[in-house]
Amino acid sequence: MSRDVIGALARLLSPLAWSGPARSARKLYAFALAEQGSMLDLRLAAARTSSAARAAAYLRHADDEARHAQMFARRAAKLAGEAARPFVLPPLRADCERLFELLGERDFLAFVHVGEERARRQFEAYVTWFKGQARDQDAVLFETILVDERRHGRYTRELLLELVGEVEARKALRRVARWELGRRWLRAGRFVAERVYLVLTLALYVLAAPLALLVRLVRPIRPGLRAEGSARALPAPE
């Protein structure tokens, strides 16, 4: 997805995504989870790579992601407390996707670079929107994190070029962009399927209620019937 499309979508959806403290809190909490999950994958990459220099770079990146996760989580908790109906967000417990093992180091680097560049474009659009809404605290939060996002985008591209060269790097970037698009499509499909299943289940219960009532009216349960049947089933005493 091009830079213009990513930025335009972020600007277009900002009024909806950040409308009110409750929705903003949940959005920031989702970012916190994503940052924590990225931290776990980067730590695993540092343990698996054959290069000490790349391991050090992954660990520095992981430390940044851990810090970002806490920054997002703290702001999310504050906004959750300011909502019309205050609520408490659960503790951060992200999963490690083990992307280094799944993709290999070349495509892992390409994947991280694509993700960092996408996040940078989104965050830049959010900063512009927050400033226009006089939400200075949120604008400063994203501006602070953007400093690291830009650096992450640069170093991952440099390491990728160093690892495989320009031609293979471009191929890897295109490949992981397609892979990520397919993964997002599958996730969206699961999300929709879960909601459809829930709606259909609730509808089934609602439709079954009148039928159950009709059965009770037509064939009422007579008191003592079960007890009488149970008594017949008992063996006679010797």
TrEMBL record:
Keyword Transmembrane set for record: yes
GO molecular function, one term: metal ion binding
Keyword vocabulary terms for this entry: Membrane, Transmembrane, Transmembrane helix
Transmembrane segments: 196-218
Pfam families: Rubrerythrin
Sections of the chain in a coiled coil: none
Keyword Glycoprotein belongs to the record: no
Family matches, as SUPFAM superfamilies: Ferritin-like
InterPro entries found in the cross-reference section: Ferritin-like, Ferritin-like_SF, Rr_diiron-bd_dom
Domain Rubrerythrin diiron-binding, residue spans: 55-159
Name of the protein in its database record: Rubrerythrin
Species name: Nannocystis exedens
